[in-house]
Amino acid sequence: MGRQPCCDKLGVKKGPWTAEEDKKLINFILTNGQCCWRAVPKLAGLRRCGKSCRLRWTNYLRPDLKRGLLSEAEEQLVIDLHARLGNRWSKIAARLPGRTDNEIKNHWNTHIKKKLLKMGVDPVTHEPLHKQLLSEEAEAPSSDASHSQESGNRCAAENDSIINSEANSSSSRPPENCSSDDSLLLDNICKNESLGKSMWIDEAALVDESWENICHVGLPSVEENSCAWLLDCQDFGIHDFGLDCFSDIEFNVLNTLEMGENIN
DNA sequence: AAGTTGGTCAACCGCATCAAC
DNA sequence: TGTTGATGCGGTTGACCAACT
């Protein structure tokens, strides 16, 4: 016998989350921590699938999430990482603090893809389109689509080792074999300190760090990302969760939120 | 003003992998 | 050690909104 099913399909609610459901989920996770998603809906009093709860938390409710469009530097980083990793959005997201795989995937499909096409770059292979046309002409016609996918995967596999070795290195020094594109990227990253830091940090460390902030510190320091954090709080209604670690300033923001909720 | 189209993004679906039994 | 469920991930869908006709 294996485990119990994650949720009985009967009576499970689907569709958009209400503010009330969000509150219940946040309250539960802040109180009990992030464990065993199967049990979360029941314990939190939600008629949702555990999977749905996890998704809602990781993609929308996590306090360390950034909001708004990706910056130029972030976008450039996504493009570079996509060239290395392919469509492995979770890996890419792990290197952009405060961004989710879903968010990056959406941004890629709606913005970056078009941008690259406009620039004459194939968003799948990251090769110039004219160059690709020439190589496709030279190849057998049956190998086109599968080839680009395959080469993308191969590229991703090759780059796994690159990325892993980067991650294992605690130094902020770039890899010695980086291309001119990489150098350009690094310039962008260096302009954005937080990005620069995250670029070389191990993924697990990133996750742990963000969770440490929530569980033990309560809030990031005022200097670091205070605006982003306060904006996040607006989405939460954290004052309802019995946390006493917020300053008056933050409560002012939360009052604003409350007004918004009353409208809903 | 009403209808249509296109863009955006939250959420769902299904598959792969891992781990519990 | 095989089976089965949990979890994570990428792909896809659909609701909502703004721009356009």
UniProtKB/TrEMBL annotation:
<feature type="domain" description="Myb-like">
    <location>
        <begin position="9"/>
        <end position="61"/>
    </location>
</feature>
<dbReference type="InterPro" id="IPR017930">
    <property type="entry name" value="Myb_dom"/>
</dbReference>
<dbReference type="GO" id="GO:0046394">
    <property type="term" value="P:carboxylic acid biosynthetic process"/>
</dbReference>
<keyword id="KW-0804">Transcription</keyword>
<feature type="region of interest" description="Disordered">
    <location>
        <begin position="134"/>
        <end position="156"/>
    </location>
</feature>
<dbReference type="InterPro" id="IPR009057">
    <property type="entry name" value="Homeodomain-like_sf"/>
</dbReference>
<dbReference type="InterPro" id="IPR015495">
    <property type="entry name" value="Myb_TF_plants"/>
</dbReference>
<feature type="domain" description="HTH myb-type">
    <location>
        <begin position="62"/>
        <end position="116"/>
    </location>
</feature>
<dbReference type="GO" id="GO:0000976">
    <property type="term" value="F:transcription cis-regulatory region binding"/>
</dbReference>
<dbReference type="InterPro" id="IPR001005">
    <property type="entry name" value="SANT/Myb"/>
</dbReference>
<keyword id="KW-0238">DNA-binding</keyword>
<keyword id="KW-0539">Nucleus</keyword>
<feature type="domain" description="HTH myb-type">
    <location>
        <begin position="9"/>
        <end position="61"/>
    </location>
</feature>
<dbReference type="Pfam" id="PF00249">
    <property type="entry name" value="Myb_DNA-binding"/>
</dbReference>
<keyword id="KW-0677">Repeat</keyword>
<dbReference type="GO" id="GO:0005634">
    <property type="term" value="C:nucleus"/>
</dbReference>
<protein>
    <submittedName>
        <fullName>MYB transcription factor 1</fullName>
    </submittedName>
</protein>
<dbReference type="GO" id="GO:0006355">
    <property type="term" value="P:regulation of DNA-templated transcription"/>
</dbReference>
<keyword id="KW-0805">Transcription regulation</keyword>
<feature type="domain" description="Myb-like">
    <location>
        <begin position="62"/>
        <end position="112"/>
    </location>
</feature>
